[in-house]
Amino acid sequence: MSNATRRSPLCCANTSQSFSNVARPCGGVDSRIAHGSTFWLELTLKRAADPAPAPALADPADAVAPPAAAPAGDAVASAHILLVEDDAVNQMVLAAMLEQLGCRVDIVDDGEAACDAAARTRYDMVFMDCHMPVMDGFDAARRIRDGEARGDGRHTPIVALTALALAGDRERCLSAGMDDYMTKPVRAATLAAAVQRWAGADPDR
Question: Which residues pair with residue 146 across a beta bridge?
Answer without folding.
Answer: none
